[in-house]
Specification:
The protein contains two helices and 31 strands. By secondary structure, it is an alpha+beta fold. A six-stranded mixed sheet has the order 3-12-10-5-6-7, with no helix packed on it. The termini are far apart.
Amino acid sequence: MNLQLLPVILSLAVFLSVALSQDLVSIQFKSDPVLVQTGTDAVFTVVTVLQVFSITWGYPGGVTPLGLWVGGSAVLNTVTQYQGRVTITATQLRISSAQLGDAGNYTVKVDPSPTTGLAQNTRSIQLRVFDAVDGVTMFVPSVALEGGNVSVRCTWTKGTETSVLWGKGGSALTSNSRVTIKGGDLVINPARREDAGVYSCTVSNLVSAQTASKTLTVYYGPDTPVLSKASPADCVVAADAVVGQTIRLTCVSNSLPPATFSWKYNNEPVASGQPASGVFSLQTFSTNQSGQYKCVASNAITGATSEQGTDLAIVGTCLSAGAVAGIVIGCVVALILIVIAIVLLVRWKRVCDNVALLQLTED
């Protein structure tokens, strides 16, 4: 061994031994990862010791660093992708007008001052760049029918790494046995009338969000009508009207849009003065108008109909309950009078018999 090299070798060994025994300088970041939208500034802030010899910043896939802070000033390297967009200060790397291609892992290498007794350290930090969400629009069908398949769609023109949140009436919507949600598509099958309302879709990523909303109308019906009648007759026997009286039939059916009504008499169409209102007034003039009357509810959009019928009995004359009660009372009174007369006749006969017997006895 060359003896002249021995002191140098021993010095290097001592230096390496001391270097290896040093603690690494602490490196932290103010925020990690860094999340920005395109066109804004990406700022990396490093937190380390105050006594620093140099801080060097590296970019994703870069062989040479972007630049470093040394001796109280910045030294920048020429990197085409970042040309004119890089600023380095004592604690920060700033990349202005961030682009999607800027995303990746950046490195910072801190060389502390020898007086700190700390060793050099390196740490990486992730930059994520997003296009902000924009142009969110919702589409609902112009005609959605109860019982059918209803599709609602949410679209957007800009935005990267997006997610979609659906809502109805201010509450979040999730998939269930009737509702299927896949990203920007929501399908209801089968649709119900209670599915109508204000729907919203919120498209978001980690740096932005935008919401669109639309009202969904679900057309339904007509449901089975409820038919009622205003009968003017007050007959003891089953009767709805006496010839000459007017019967009023009212038909109600749940429907959207509101149902229109038509009427049938013994399954034959009959005119009504107020079809939209569901009211049918029958002016009676003959007992032959007795029979079945039907209300037919129709929905112009769903194309469905539903009907309900009732039987009407029209008589020529009738005894009201009051009249029958009067007759009964009269009969009772007459019966009482007859009984009283019989009792009086019996008593009179007894008196006459007693008088006749008394006269015979005297003779």
